[in-house]
Amino acid sequence: MIILGVDPGLTCTGWGLVAKAGSRLSHVANGQIRTDIKLTMAERLVQLDAALTEVILAHRPDSGAVEEVFVNVNPQSTLKLGQARGVAMLSLARSGMPVAEYPTKVIKKALVGTGGADKKQIQHMLKVLLPGVKLAGEDASDALAVAITHANMLGSHR
Q1: What is the dihedral of CA 94, 95, 99, 105, to 10 degrees?
Q2: In whole numbers, what is the pLDDT of the chain averaged over residues?
């Protein structure tokens, strides 16, 4: 089973793919999608959808998961993040795959053991869980963490 994790953002959306065979996980691919800040909001959302659709068509994941929106101090930032998240969920769902959502604290706890883990701890655990992985950036590593969390949750529901 191939699982796609997405860490949504309007400026940069991370994506990460893992393969699950029994209890074994392996890295498939990861990357980041950057939208052009000179474009309108609608054009940036179209850019994000097109790029995520390319990832989906290239890798044909069986299941997907998206990180839930956290509330920023700036309501405008939260709104933009929510719009990017909506596009991410639409892109995944439109392909026919089931889509799960996980809060940031659940993802951190699933990977590191504490909901208060920082980015360095997440990246360290990714290197332990996916030996030899080359991370495309912070957003890509967060997306791989989402994919791994979903892979583990799938296993616990059976």
Answers
A1: -90
A2: 93
> Is 142 labeled as catalytic in the residue annotation?
no
Active site residue 62: no
Q: Phi/psi at 94 (nearest 5 deg)?
A: -60, -30
CA atoms of 89 and 68, how far apart (whole Å): 10
**Residue 19, amino acid:** A
134, 123 Cβ separation under 8 angstroms = no
Tokens of 64: 């997907």
Question: Is 7 annotated as belonging to a binding site?
Answer: yes
What token pair was written down for 20? Answer: 């699950």
7 counts as catalytic: yes
Which helix (H) or strand (E) is 47 found in, with range?
Answer: helix 41-59
Other CB atoms closer than 10 Å to residue 40's CB: what's the count? 9
User: Tens of pLDDT along 34-86?
Assistant: 999 999 999 999 999 999 999 999 999 999 999 997 767 788 888 888 999 99
pLDDT the model gives residue 66: 97
**Residue where the block lists tokens 């059976």:** 158
Which is the catalytic residue, given 49, 54, 62, 67?
Answer: 67
- Any idea which of 38-47, 53-62, 108-117, 143-152 has the lowest mean pLDDT? 108-117
- pTM above threshold 0.85: yes
**Is 36 part of any known ligand binding site?**
no
